Amino acid sequence: MVPVVAAALVEGGGRVLLARRHAGAHQGGLWEFPGGKLEPGEGAEEALARELAEELGIRPLRYRPLIRVRHTYADRTVILDTWRVTAWEGEPRGLEGQPLAWVAPEALDEHPMPAADRPIVSALRLPECCLVTPDPGPPPHGSFLRRLEAVLGSGVAMVILRAPSLEAERLIALAAEATAIAERYGASLLLNGEPEWAEAAGAHGLHLNRHRLRGQVGRPLDDSYRVGASCHDAEELELAAAAGVDYVLCSPVLATPSHPGAPTLGWEGLARLCEEAQMPVYALGGVGPAHLPESWAAGAQGIAAIRALWEGGS
Questions:
Q1: Neighbouring residues of 247: CB distance < 8 A, sequence distance ≥ 6
Q2: Worst-scoring range by mean pLDDT, 16-30, 102-116, 121-135, 227-241?
């Protein structure tokens, strides 16, 4: 096991800093997020500050956990503890002779990276909060769509449309309208349903519930779509990894009014699942934006919510 700390430096315009590894190094010639191995007895934040000083000549001022990735290569397993850094003192320079590049998140695929860095790219492209809609019920859906627009206007950037009461034809029609609204706000809309429904609606992606996840073989849509899944335990995380999803929702983290007395993961249980996950994790169940610090501390991307975001949007 090789413990490594990495920094995703994000400047004001959203671009991320990459450094290219020297040709003779492990994974030489590939682009990576700056960082390096922890020294004996060194904590992650201490290592983060040291590596950024040594490699780039800067001091981090504002940062938080982003994602922790475990990846096994042919010759080693790395534990990559990645931090999102949004403020620093000094101007980044390649003090070890390494080329640097500021890259927009959507263009990161143009820079070949080690396999361990791919979940970091997913995390950088995902927002902190994800809305899971309540069931809209039967048509007409005017009030539902107006509320959706209000929530998107409040800053929510990713929506999972969940409508178990609707038959496929009506769900596809509603998803098409919702996708058009999401695009006006620069947000993404994912359909909880079948892959062909998401394609027919022109949605930005697909979300698999636990039942569809268990029947899924391989990734259901190509990489132009965002794909996620609902997970509750380590077994379902393995199924999600096999399905090639971009993120998962793990639940229930805390007690919810809809399921009083049901067992919950708690923050410690969520942290254990985040350790097992090979993709970004959202905390779901009894959480809202106020729980973002706890979710980050547990290793999660952020929070997903129904009530807290649907009722909380302006």
A1: 122, 126, 226, 228, 279, 280, 281, 282, 301
A2: 16-30
For 39-61, b/e burial (b = at least 16 CB within 10 A) is: eeeeebeebbbebbeebbebebe
- 98 residue type, one letter: Q
Query: Rounded distance, CA 294 to CA 221, Å?
Result: 32
pLDDT value of residue 71: 83
Structure confidence at residue 155 as a pLDDT band (50, 70, 90): very high
**Cα 11 to the center of its chain, rounded Å:** 19
Helix axes 168-184, 142-153, angle to 10 degrees: 30
Per-residue model confidence (pLDDT) at position 313: 45
Same fold, 2-118 and 129-310: no
HSE-CB at 128 with a 13 A cutoff on CA atoms is 15
Work out the mean pLDDT of the chain and round it to a whole number. Answer: 94
The closest of 292, 295, 290 to 268, measured between CA atoms, is 295
The radius of gyration of the chain's CA atoms, rounded to the nearest angstrom, is: 20
User: Are residues 8 and 32 in contact, defined by beta-carbon separation less than 8 angstroms?
Assistant: no
Superfamily in which the 2-118 domain is placed by CATH: Nucleoside Triphosphate Pyrophosphohydrolase (3.90.79.10)
| Assigned CATH for 129-310 | 3.20.20.70
The structure tokens listed for 120 are 């970091």
Band (26; pLDDT cuts 50, 70, 90): low
Which residue bears the tokens 């475990």? Answer: 70
